[in-house]
TrEMBL record:
Annotated GO MF terms: ATP binding
Annotated localization: Cell inner membrane
Topological category with respect to the lipid bilayer: Multi-pass membrane protein
Domain of life assignment: Bacteria
Family the entry assigns: Belongs to the ABC transporter superfamily. Macrolide exporter (TC 3.A.1.122) family.
Pfam families: ABC_tran, FtsX, MacB_PCD
Protein name listed in UniProt: Pyoverdine export ATP-binding/permease protein PvdT
Organism of this sequence: Ideonella lacteola
Length: 664
């Protein structure tokens, strides 16, 4: 079976609607191990024929068989595989990738074959060594002479085996000595079993081949035929390229190359990349800022309110809006019961307080005594700074224990005096008898101080009197036997919206009291107020973010289209050495995603700086860029990159290798 067989091959170009026949009715058979020169004048169709032979171009008529397989029936990726595994191209203008050194250029075909990086470097070094470029491994093409560059391209052609070497005017750009060396090299490769197809317009060059085919106006006008002994000793027994690894290794090689070339492209156009990132940066900054701000608002509410405060409404006696002199009434049990019966209310808990006299040793002081519930401290933003808090056991046993705050401590104890374990006498009423001495009326209750509390953080709902907290059970059953409440908690069951319950409750209590001599406070209300603020801000930022991301995405798409058209020749080179369409697509997609992610990083940094500034100038909101925001930022940036990079990447992948190569 012939290595390459053409029957009736034609290749017509259409130029502005005019049919240009570059090849017409070409019948040609080339056996393995031949050294063929294709000759003809400029424009006779030599390059067109070579591109068809090398599966870079698809004929418009006739058939091309490679090893008996019809190349016309192959998919682009199968053609890429053929180029990668069987062919090695040598071009007049070398077609090396300018930003890669000699070794990387030579190794490129093995990347797409999925050869491990260490192995492909070793082989590239061995090939370059053999071609006399041992000391030029790390030179970029522009640091090499024409002859040297052409030898790098030979190394590249041999990288994956290069059973069939296709050379299009390989000496065209070389001085005569380099040209002669190159031809000697081709002859040497022919001796080693490579099939050589050499395209030239120069009869002297063609004379090195064993068979000469002459083209004129796209037709073969002369074929010297193959001499009986033209084949090398062992046709086809050429050195093999390295075997590619499994899918995993191929994937790794593919991704590494894509990342490397993307980075290279971005670094090569720093200013342009930075400018095109701008929109993405602003968009991502907006997204991250939304998250930081809403997070800060939520944190602030949680700090101020406490999660346990959700689902309840606090009703307290007194209202700043009352006319001066008016005495707010406490809540009678029947009134509390009426509230408790409202729809949406799960139950009611009391909290009571009263001014009483406290005595320690010979010191008396007016204090506010509060019947404490388990959540009282947290609700009042207090924390235990000494001793312990009240426990459920204290409440259950109506223990005679108390917590005092700093004010109570200062008024009842000497500075520095230990207070834990001391006993305090509290009396519900008092009468001033005589001058100075205050005598409690009725029975005073001794309570043991178990802890000291202080304001937790900046917020302080402190009273002007010192405070003494006793278990509410102790309070209502041993101290203050009144049945009216000063404060009560309405627990919601979520069957009715909190603001609706609040409305009903206010309405009902106002009716019962005849006036609004009470106040209410609800976490949900607080929450809603916050959400209104943060919601409006979020909406603003989301709008800015979405628009910036869209504009940024279009900018990235634009710059990527420019990048694709600038690097068309590079794409052609990669395809010629066997890159699949997916490889090319990946390369540009990765570049777009990388660009967007870098823009995203800048955006995250922007909002981080913003958050720091915000935290410096104010203290009510603590803004922080979270890891989650970072994750979302990169997610969004990658998505924008994927969406807006797809069109350029597809366009790059859809290029035909021969068109891409021809582009300057
Ligand atoms: P050679 O390599 O022998 O100089 P080519 O194969 O490059 O010749 O070109 C053969 C003919 O096809 C020429 O007339 C050329 O103008 C035409 N041709 C080559 N490439 C294209 C193309 N991409 N579009 C239109 N015409 C082309
Ligand atoms: Mg040509």
């Amino acid at each position: 079976m012939a290595l390459i067989e053409l029957t009736g091959v034609g290749r017509h170009y259409r130029l502005a609607g005019i049919d240009v026949p570059a090849l017409e009715g070409v019948d040609l058979t080339i056996e393995a191990g031949e050294f063929v020169a294709i000759m003809g004048q400029s424009g006779s169709g030599k390059s067109t024929l070579m591109n068809v032979l090398g599966c870079l171009d698809v004929p418009t008529a006739g058939h091309l068989l490679i090893d008996g397989r019809d190349a016309g029936a192959l998919q682009p990726d199968e053609l890429a595989a053929l180029r990668r595994e069987r062919f090695g191209f040598i071009f007049q203008r070398y077609h090396l990738l300018p930003h890669m050194d000699a070794r990387a250029n030579a190794a490129l075909p093995a990347v797409y074959a999925g050869v491990d990086i260490k192995d492909r470097r070793e082989r590239a070094e061995a090939l370059l060594e053999r071609l006399g470029l041992g000391s030029r491994m790390h030179h970029k093409p522009n640091e090499l002479s024409g002859g040297q560059q052409q030898r790098v391209s030979i190394a590249r052609a041999l990288m994956n085996g290069g059973q069939i070497i296709l050379a299009d005017e390989p000496t065209g750009a070389l001085d005569s000595q380099s040209g002669a060396e190159l031809l000697a090299l081709l002859a040497e490769l022919h001796r080693r079993g490579h099939t050589i197809i050499l395209v030239t317009h120069d009869a002297a060059v063609a004379a090195h081949a064993r068979r000469i085919i002459e083209l004129r106006d796209g037709r073969i006008v002369h074929d010297s035929g193959a001499p009986a002994d033209h084949q090398s000793a062992a046709p086809g027994a050429t050195e093999r390229g390295l075997a590619g690894g499994g899918w995993w290794q191929r994937l790794r090689a593919q991704w590494r190359e894509a990342l490397q070339s993307a980075l290279q492209a971005l670094l090569g156009n720093r200013l342009r990349s930075a400018l095109s990132m701008l929109g993405i940066s602003i968009g991502i900054a907006a997204v991250v800022s939304i998250m930081a701000l809403t997070g800060a608002a939520r944190g602030s509410i949680e700090r101020d309110v406490g999660a346990f405060m959700q689902g309840r409404i606090l009703v307290y006696r007194g209202n700043p809006a009352l006319p001066p002199g008016a005495v707010p009434r406490p809540f009678r049990p029947s009134e509390v019961a009426a509230v408790s019966a409202l729809p949406g209310v799960r139950g009611v808990t009391f909290e009571r307080e009263a001014q009483m006299t406290a005595r320690h040793a010979n010191r008396d002081s007016m204090v506010n005594v509060l019947g404490a519930e388990p959540q009282t401290l947290a609700m009042r933003k207090l924390k235990v700074v000494e001793g312990r808090a009240l426990t459920d056991a204290d409440l259950g046993t109506r223990a005679q224990v108390a917590l005092i705050d700093d004010k109570a401590r200062n008024s009842l104890f000497r500075a520095g005096e230990a207070v834990i374990g001391r006993t305090l006498m509290v009396a519900p009423q008092m009468q001033v008898a005589g001058a100075g001495a205050a005598v409690p009326e009725g029975v005073a209750l001794p309570v043991t101080i178990v802890g000291v509390v202080a304001a937790d953080g900046m917020t302080d709902f402190g009273s002007w009197l010192g405070r003494v907290f006793v278990p509410h059970t102790t309070f209502s059953q041993k101290l203050d036997l009144r049945t009216d409440a000063d404060t009560f908690n309405v627990l919601l069951d979520n069957s009715v919206p909190p603001d609706e319950v609040l409305k009903q409750l206010t309405y009902r209590l106002r009716a019962l009291h005849g006036e609004e001599d009470f106040g209410t406070w609800s976490a949900d209300e607080e929450f809603r107020k916050f959400q209104q603020i943060t919601g409006a801000l979020s909406l603003l930022f989301a709008g800015v973010g979405a628009i910036s991301l869209f504009v940024g995405g279009v900018g990235v798409m634009n710059i990527m289209l420019v990048s694709v058209s600038e690097r068309t020749r590079e794409i052609g080179i990669r395809m010629a050495v066997g890159a699949r369409q997916a490889d090319v697509r990946l390369q540009f997609l990765v570049e777009a995603v990388l660009l967007c992610c870098l823009g995203g990083l800048a955006g995250v940094m922007l909002s981080w700086v913003g958050s720091q500034v915000l935290n410096r100038v104010q203290t009510s909101l603590h803004v922080e860029v979270s890891w989650a925001a970072l994750g979302v930022a990169f997610g969004v940036a990658s998505l924008v990159g994927l969406i807006f990079g797809t069109l350029p990447a597809r366009r790059a992948a859809a290029l035909s290798p021969v068109d891409a190569l021809a582009r300057e």
